[in-house]
Predict the 3D structure of the following.
Amino acid sequence: MEFLEAKKKHEDLVRLIEKYSHEYYVLDNPTVSDFEYDQKMEELQRLEEEFPELITKTSPTQRIIGQVLDGFEEIHHEKQMLSLGDVFNDDELLDWVKKTEESAHKELEFVAEMKIDGLAMSLVYQDGVLKYAATRGDGMTGEDVTTNVLTIPSVPTRINLMGRVEVRGEIYMPKKSFAELNEARKEKGEPLFANARNAAAGSIRNLDSSVARSRKLDGWWYYFANAEDFGIKTHAEAINKLDELGFKTNHERRIIKGKDQILAYVEEYTAKRSSLPYDIDGIVLKVNDFSLYDEIGYTAKTPKWAIAYKFPPEEVKTKLLDIVYTVGRTGKITPNAVLEPVRVAGSLVQRATLHNEDFILEKGLMVNDHVIIRKAGDIIPEVVKPILQDRTGEEIPYKMIENCPDCGSKLVKIDAMHFCLNKNCPSRAIESLIHFASKDAMDIEGMGEKVCEEFFALGFIKSIPDIYLLHHHKDEIIEIDGWSNKSVDNLLDAIEKSKNNSLERLLFGLGIKEVGSKMAKTLARRFTNLTLLMSQNEEELQNINDIGVVVAHSIVEYFKDEHNLEIINKLDELHVNMVYLGNNKVDSSSYFYNKKVVLTGTLTSFGRKEATEILENLGAHVSSSVSKVTDLVIAGVEAGSKLDKANKLGVKVINEEEFKELLGGEKDEDNQ
């Protein structure tokens, strides 16, 4: 066969196989038998073996070949992938509808859709051919996961539309695939996945594409990102166009308007949720008319023309088998419920925190009680209450332990919490190491909870300074299953890099009681080096804004302790930086200098963290609550109770534009 003839044959086979795949995986209406489909695929494989130059990454044959990548390349989204704002009940949903219609100055038509519990994904096509598939990432930059997404048969590799096309949706694992996966893992003695979303996300981000292929993922596509480029005027038309182009879209969607239709849709799918063959965690409403999007507007992270209604937490019944205790880095003792395993909101729950003794006594919990549990925000398991009518007399009344479950030291109750005061308690040591290496502290990448626990158990690290001596154990670590020369080198490089962190990270990492990350920055900026901070007495510390009697006492007591001083001296000897590296020169003439400021609502030009940092750098004291001593409230979009309280107390309020004008004035003065 000549090459041109082979090329034509190849194109015909690809079109035919993709047609069969679309009928089977998207329309659920196959027109040929599995045998006939396999014959065509084998014919295509033979043709590509004879003419390998015909093979492309989007060829149907490449979907079934596992490839292993060294890593994922970054993809910069041409248009930011925004997340959605959340509402949690009917009143909040209707309030959002009211505000949105007020912004548009008319009654609106919405498209209601399922909120798929999966992994957000962008597909980009150029002149009809899939160019890449990318994760959301931080909204601006994601990862190129094309190789793994191509293993999903329902994803079209070619579409009948020229130019650049971007389609967004969600990669998910059907309930059936999830059950089969966990059953297979159970038979092999492997740990089970907690929920289908985690399993899907882990599959897509696995460097071996055969893993994604084996897990039978799928995708729903619900947003034609640049539909207006093709003359499309509404979201409903855009989704219909995706149908026409061969994308798998969810046909539970509906065009609705008005309070009655909106609440009826919510009620219908709240009831249907458990019967769907895939997980949903809510319902999405989008304004249908594209021409209104800019008028309705955006926040920094979310479109105002769409909202996610999150289902109320699912409550289920299980049994409280036992209460066990964990020891935190400060010695705090936390009781935890051991539960008869039960699936809640898509994942298996076996533990839940019980906070403290008072929490357990107030709820009247007993071991062997049948209890109601739920996930707060569909994330954190919590025990709601015991089922009193189910008690049989076999329940065991609760009594708080008197000694540390790890070292046996006598516990001390301070306010509502119990503490182990033994500084040499192993559990406290491990938690201190985990905290020191954490992202908000010294940010040592690769040294998470499990690594800290493993290295502690092996005797490589017993206290914080030992982290900086881990290079002495390099040969031993390499021998541990799961570690390689490269991964060990990466960890040691991250440890070395952390020596150059600014003082505030070290202060937070040391775990001084009452000193959070914000307080650590205040102290670092005020005293500039650790030696000067250590020389302060309680009275001197209390002269600083935001430092009260309790915090000042805790700081002074920490630096009196010989064990703590020994840790600091060792870190100094190991060349860990103890100096503030930021800008501590605050202009006292700044408008914001020494003002107590509260941020409320959403600022469209700044993230909350960024605005806080700007204000603190100008000498302001940013607080989370409004009181009589508040000097200024900066109110963004959808400011709520804090704005109401400020108005009631007569506190000065400015909007975002006024805030930006004041910042501009600061910059103008700097330039003079």
